[in-house]
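> example.struct
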């Protein structure tokens, strides 16, 4: 839907541009030129808006991609934890299996020991060996025989006690193994619960990635569409500026000159006293520098600023930056709306720096005038060329 809406906008833009160009070419007079400038300013605003929109969406796509990368790291970590948990569960199963087998053997041993002890006790009592001492004495043929039986009986009892102790020891071992199996079982259950939670997290992460991936696609698509529309607008603005430049080229040069001879490429700087400026004056200076010199050649930016401040310091021109910049018919970007567009979005950082340097007293030309290099060439204006401008 967005794409088709913008296609309609583009068609409308083409129609507007066509009407403007026809109007200018047909000599519609001041009103036609004014309409052309107004239309171009509108297109520039749309261009800046779409360019920002494209950059914003591209930035959003990058930020979302970073989030996806972070979530992928979390998924990898969760996968590692799941692998460890599965290995531990497998180990617990093996240990439990081993302990179960050992328990069965111990229980069998305990059962045999118990049956042996019970059988020994039963035989002894049935044989009468464990009656009271008086009865045993009466049944004995002699006192020595009694003593011998008593010793035998004590040895038998000691042996039975020893076997009972063995039985109890085996019982303790059986109980420890049962407790150990319970502990392993609890640890296994804990790991299984952790495993379930980790798998849930993985599913949540995967869902987040799916959602973010969709947002990335949308952001990239919007960025692409906005960039394409901005490019179309830029072409139309360039077309209108070319037409306007042709119209301006028809104007005759009035012969104004500073009568100052300069040489070099603008990199020889000198300093004058600093100008006490406000934040609005700084923004205006940076914006007119960007409008007239672009934002690539520092000497050109300083030279444009120098011309403006030379005028402020001269009695032949207004004594304020605003007065110089907005003086009637002096600076083309004021007439075309380019200055207003730059101020609306904010001047480039390097233009702000150049503006501060100029306002703090940095200079490289003493001229009051400059023209675009192409215009100076057409009209035979002599001066020093710095960047795309000739200062004279």
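> example.seq
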């Amino acid at each position: 839907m967005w794409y088709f809406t913008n296609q309609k906008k583009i068609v409308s833009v083409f129609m507007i541009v066509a009407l403007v160009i026809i109007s200018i070419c047909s000599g519609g007079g001041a009103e036609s030129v004014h309409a052309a400038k107004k239309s171009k300013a509108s297109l520039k605003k749309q261009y800046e808006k779409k360019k920002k929109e494209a950059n914003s969406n591209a930035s959003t796509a990058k930020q979302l991609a970073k989030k996806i990368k972070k979530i992928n790291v979390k998924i990898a970590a969760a996968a590692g934890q799941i692998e460890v948990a599965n290995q531990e569960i497998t180990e617990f199963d093996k240990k439990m299996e081993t302990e179960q087998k050992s328990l069965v053997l111990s229980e069998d041993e305990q059962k045999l020991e118990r049956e042996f002890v019970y059988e020994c006790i039963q035989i002894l009592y049935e044989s009468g060996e464990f009656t009271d001492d008086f009865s045993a004495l009466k049944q004995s043929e002699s006192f020595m025989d009694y003593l011998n039986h008593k010793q035998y009986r004590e040895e038998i009892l000691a042996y039975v006690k020893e076997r009972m102790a063995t039985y109890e020891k085996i019982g303790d071992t059986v109980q420890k193994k049962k407790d150990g199996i319970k502990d392993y079982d609890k640890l296994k259950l804990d790991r299984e619960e952790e495993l379930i939670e980790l798998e849930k997290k993985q599913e949540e992460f995967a869902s987040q990635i799916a959602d973010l991936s969709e947002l990335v696609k949308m952001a990239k698509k919007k960025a692409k569409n906005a960039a394409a529309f901005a490019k179309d607008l830029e072409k139309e603005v360039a077309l209108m500026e070319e037409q306007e430049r042709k119209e301006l080229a028809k104007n005759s040069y009035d012969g104004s000159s500073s009568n100052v001879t300069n040489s070099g490429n603008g990199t020889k700087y000198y300093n004058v006293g600093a100008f006490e400026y406000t934040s609005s004056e700084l923004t205006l200076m940076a914006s007119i520098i960007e409008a007239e010199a672009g934002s690539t050649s520092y000497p050109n930016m300083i030279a444009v600023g120098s011309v403006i401040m030379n005028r402020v310091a001269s009695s032949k021109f207004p004594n304020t930056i605003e007065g110089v910049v907005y003086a009637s018919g002096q600076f083309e970007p004021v007439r075309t709306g380019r200055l207003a567009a730059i101020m609306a979005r904010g001047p480039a950082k390097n233009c702000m720096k150049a503006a501060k340097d100029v306002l703090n007293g940095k200079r490289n030309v003493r001229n009051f005038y400059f023209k675009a290099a192409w215009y100076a060439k057409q009209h035979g204006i002599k001066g020093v060329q710095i960047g795309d401008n000739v200062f004279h």
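> remarks
The chain has a mean pLDDT of 75.
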